[in-house]
Design goal:
The strands form three sheets. The chain has an eight-stranded antiparallel beta barrel with strand order 9-10-11-12-13-14-15-16. The protein has a six-stranded mixed sheet with strand order 4-3-7-2-1-8. Strands 5-6 form a two-stranded antiparallel sheet. The chain contains eleven helices and 16 strands. With 421 residues, the chain is α+β, with helices and mostly antiparallel strands.
Length: 421
């Protein structure tokens, strides 16, 4: 019986399956998948286009086929654990409603007497089934323990203080959670449509069926997901336990960020940076600062411009735009510095390495702190401001090795690729 129950549970997350239900009823099951946070029908997700066309044909045949009578239809909306639970319930309800509207636009109206609808919200059962069937899930036993024994919400003194989702997110620094986020959460964002048929059997066919050899009751037909059917070794070979090695099917990250270095802004050298993330490991950053202040009456000049491109490698983090990185930068600078005495005007080139840490404060904003060490070569002219003129003194060159950058920046993330929650 344990084997039979396990097979039946697997049907909840199967893409398309046909399950004989003995006792005269046949159930035909299909799944329509959705983008994160969306209830709109998107035919470009997974096999939705083919599945919806097939579903329309099945409904038409089921409503008019003389051999089978469509006895009832059950639609169940599911959502993934990310996002607010109460909103996920409404989201799954909208997914079912828009699916019915989609069918009506194509001339298919399901009688109310045949239809039952459920907005389930988060599909915790589907998640538990996937974890149970996939040895490659990091910390699988601990994840199953949380899914089985930790309530969805833990309330103390009228306030939510803990819960299942929080425990999953905190487990092993979030490694298991983000494995599931990338691999199984997209499987849970669906509407399950079950079409129940009653076979119309004539007396002659009934006599023939009585003589047929029947299949065992635990025989089912179902389609395997990516890992099912593989040995443990084959599954582990497919998946790294570090979730940032995994390529997401629909990249939902903010790829672009605008930044300003608050430390440079404070010394009246406004800064602007643009960073683009190619993936979860690599990004490119372009940094620029300009201070072009002068006071000719007092022979004071505070003029400097810097441009510095940088390539960054990000270490493991719990989420994108969050965590440690190292970078390699190069760049150039132009300056004219004088404070009522000897002045210096010249150019410089720099190159070096940076280390930094970025941490988000909300959905769009982050703070970034970093330091850069490297080599600078500069060639400059010394001059003296005398009677409104700038008298050339000499040309010098200087090499410097040491700190070159110091940053505490405000980061604004934008240009999001992929769907909403």
């Amino acid at each position: 019986m344990g084997f039979i129950c396990k097979i039946i549970l697997q049907l909840f997350i199967v893409g398309v399956s046909i399950v004989p239900i003995y006792g005269g009823e046949i159930v035909d099951t299909v799944y329509v998948y959705y983008a994160r946070g969306s209830s709109d029908i998107d035919v470009d997700i997974r096999r939705n286009k083919a599945v919806l066309e097939d579903l329309a044909n099945r409904l038409k045949n089921g409503l008019c086929d003389s051999n089978y009578r469509l006895s009832r239809i059950r639609m169940t909306g599911h959502a993934s654990p990310d996002g607010v639970s109460s909103l996920n319930v409404k989201l799954t309800e909208n997914r079912v409603i828009k699916l019915l509207d989609y069918l009506k636009e194509r001339g298919i109206t399901i009688p109310d007497t045949l239809l039952s609808v459920t907005a389930q919200g988060i599909d915790w059962d589907g998640l538990a089934t996937f974890v149970s069937d996939t040895p490659a899930v990091p910390c699988r036993d601990e994840v199953l323990e949380i899914l089985k024994n930790v309530p969805e919400w833990i309330v103390h003194a009228g306030k939510v203080v803990d819960g299942r989702k929080r425990r999953l997110g905190m487990l092993q620094g979030g490694v298991p959670y983000y494995f599931l986020y990338r691999r199984v959460f997209p499987e849970l964002r669906n509407v399950c449509i079950e079409l129940f048929y009653q076979e119309e059997v004539s007396e002659e066919k009934e006599k023939e069926k009585q003589t047929e050899q029947k299949l065992p009751r635990d025989t089912v037909i179902w389609h395997e997901m990516e890992f099912r059917g593989d040995s443990v070794r084959e599954q582990e070979a497919k998946v790294s336990y570090d979730p940032y090695y995994l390529k997401r099917e629909d990249d939902e990250e903010y790829r672009l960020a605008l930044k300003t270095n608050l430390l440079y802004d404070a010394i009246l050298m406004p800064s602007l940076e643009v960073e683009y993330r190619f993936n979860n490991r690599w990004s490119a950053n372009l940094e620029g600062e300009v201070a072009w202040w002068s006071n000719n009456s007092k022979h004071k000049y505070y003029q400097i411009a810097v441009i510095s491109p940088e390539v960054r490698y990000w270490f493991f983090a719990r989420k994108p735009w969050h965590g440690h990185y190292v970078g390699f930068f190069a760049g150039g600078s132009w300056y004219d510095l004088e404070n009522g005495g000897r002045g210096y005007q010249g150019e410089a080139v720099i190159t070096g390495f940076s280390y930094g840490y970025m941490f988000p404060v909300n959905r769009r904003l982050s703070f970034e702190a970093s330091v850069g060490l490297g080599f600078m070569h500069t060639s400059y002219e010394e001059y003296l401001p005398i009677d409104g003129h700038y008298v050339y003194q000499r040309t010098r060159k200087t090499d410097y090795l040491g700190p070159l950058k110091l940053k505490f920046a405000l980061v604004w993330r934008l240009w999001r690729k992929g769907g909403e929650r």
